[in-house]
Amino acid sequence: MSNAAMVIRGNAIFDGTGAKPFAGGIAVEGKRIAAVVKGEGIDRYIGPDTRVIDCGDRLVMPGFNDGHTHITQGAFLEDPDFSFCLLESGSREEAIQMAKEYGDSHPDNEWVFGYMMNNLLWKDQTLPTCHDIDRVISDRPVVLQLADMHTVAVNTCAIEKIGITKDTKSPADGVIEKDEKGELTGRFYDGASFAFTDAICSPSDEVYMQIYENLFDKMKKLGITSCSLVAPYGAHDDPLPYFEKMEEKGTLTSRVMMYPNIAEYEKESFAALQKKYADGKLRIRGLKQLIDGVTSVFTAYLLEPYTNDPGTCGATSVDMKEFKKQALEAIKDGVPLRIHTIGDRAVREMLDIFEEGERLYGKQNLRHVQEHLETIHPEDIPRFAKLGICGCMQPWHMLFDLEGGDKGNGLYGDKEAAVGSQRAKHSWPMRELLDAGMVLSLGSDFPVVGLEPMCEIYGAVTRQTFDGKPEGGWYPGQRITMEEALKAYTWGSAYAEGCEQDLGTLAEGMLADIIVLDKNLFEAKPQEILDTKVVTTIMDGQVVYEA
Ligand SMILES: [Zn+2]
Predict the structure, then answer these.
(1) Distance 107 CA to ligand 1 centre (A)
(2) Which of 28, 112, 320, 387 could be 6's S-S partner, Cβ–Cβ 3.0 to 4.6 Å?
């Protein structure tokens, strides 16, 4: 029996399998876990040079794995020198004024970029036009992005910078809005909006590195030792060189599992990338696409019309014929897919494609994931486990929706108003999906919301807003347990990424990504979950953060 480099002892060790916490210890040698001991016996791994971390009643668990992020864009939004938050704007006029003030106080910024504008909170929900924004800033490009991250309102200078004219056709996956005279309005939706955010996120290499390092610093303090980075990256397409430099410098303290856009898929080059980034801190794990939008602006694709707008069922955000071809091609090549499906019809059509993929190419045990799963027809719930499709869900999105109450003015609009109570019963149906055997991954969708895992976990176990509404929880039958929520944030995400062989659980041979919280979440009251902090983060066997 050799001495370990590090031994972690505690009364509450959650190993990621979903079992209740136990008392015992973990021995770490190099990058990996050398032993996990239940009860007495860990002390035999302690030698004169062993670092011993005594955790007492604090919870010890695998590092969080955020199953759905856009950290490339999020890193920029976190930086106040780079952009400003529009969430507080109470009207169109106020949003425009905020842009002017930010522009005035940041004269050297090439772009004036505001994000998290939420017109659903405004009395008059009409978005600004390019002419509205031109009135306050016309000599620099201005981009105001909606909280859904799928819509921008920009000024004329921004349009010219991107090179769009009134003759430019809308892309297949988005809309360039024009008025009745065929003139550009300055509003761009879905795929048409991404050209602006891509163009904004292109400062110098040093600034870029600093912005990323700031974000990873925040992530290690939150105990996030892995994350999935899914397209749209919302910044330039290739963050890999920066991440690689960070790895060299030792600042890459979270593993990044990357999923570029399926539209860019090309078999040979993708296979080469996957081979190069197979099992290190940076891994290319599959492809991402969105096939519908969001409920609040009626772009989530539903089987039956919207309850609050019977004239529409929403629509897909891509040409489904073309997308299906791409998807089946990738499945044939054995590439896992992560597909954004929010409305019950988008959910079903994607399951149909996976089913066809299985019929054509057999059961391959690829880790396909459907993202968000906000509303599901009950008949489709058992299909996930049957087809081996994982679900990655974001409880905090649900809380934002609940903030809107029945007035339909939440950040995402009010789900219940949009889909009616019959369908709301099966909205964010985590309980039903777990009971039906689906593997659940939890994630944030940062920067749509923050990165804080505690907010997601609180949402999953309470289904209440941060101030405890509604009493008892929104459709409380869909709540999941603390064991299930933590398992989904660790093993579940690793499984969805196809990385569960070395990540997500505390067991001999696993990579030593371990965190210690300041309390035992299993004993915490709901409000105490929100106050819980990470005190130690260990990644690759190294302590990377200590409070
Ligand atoms: Zn997303």
Answers:
(1) 31
(2) 28
> CB 370: neighbour CB atoms within 10 A?
25
Predicted confidence (pLDDT) at residue 407 exceeds the cutoff of 50: no
Amino acid at 15: D
Tens-place pLDDT, residues 444-480 = 999 888 999 999 999 999 999 999 999 999 999 999 9
Helix ranges restricted to H, 251-372 = 267-276, 320-332, 344-361
Centre of ligand 1 to C-alpha 407, Å, is 25
How far is the centre of ligand 1, averaged over its atoms, from the C-alpha of 136 (Å)? 32
Angle between helix axes 344-361 and 320-332 (nearest 10 degrees) is 40
Q: How confident is the model at residue 120 (pLDDT cuts 50, 70, 90)?
A: confident
Distance 148 CA to ligand 1 centre (A): 9
For residues 258-279, b (16+ Cβ closer than 10 Å) or e, as one string? bbbbbbebeeeebeeebeebee
Beta strands in 180-284 (DSSP E): 184-190, 224-230, 255-259, 282-284
**One-letter amino acid for residue 272 of the chain:** A
SS3 501: coil
Q: What is the largest CA-CA distance in the chain?
A: 80
153 contact partners, CB below 8 Å, separation of at least 6: 117, 127, 128, 129, 130, 133, 143, 144, 146, 186, 187, 188
Judged by average pLDDT, the poorest of 36-40, 142-146, 194-198, 274-278 is: 194-198
CA dist list (Å): 360 to 144, 328, 439, 492 = 44, 9, 23, 27
How many whole angstroms from 30 Cα to the centroid of ligand 1?
34
What is the distance in A from the centroid of ligand 1 to the CA of 542?
Answer: 30
In this prediction, residue 408 carries a pLDDT of 45
Which two three-digit tokens encode residue 219?
Answer: 């992530």
Domains in the chain, please, with CATH? Answer: 6-63+507-546 (2.30.40.10), 83-200 (3.10.310.70), 205-496 (3.20.20.140)
Cα 187 to averaged position of ligand 1 atoms, centre (Å) = 21
CA 48–ligand 1 middle distance (angstroms):
48
Task: Give the number of other CB atoms < 10 A from CB of residue 405.
Answer: 15
- What count of other Cβ atoms lies within 10 Å of the Cβ of residue 214? 14
Cα of 11 from ligand 1 centre, angstroms: 37
The rounded distance, in Å, linking the Cα atoms of 147 and 144 is 10
Cis peptide before 476 (omega within 30 of 0): no
369, 392 Cβ separation under 8 angstroms: yes
Distance 287 CA to ligand 1 centre (A): 13
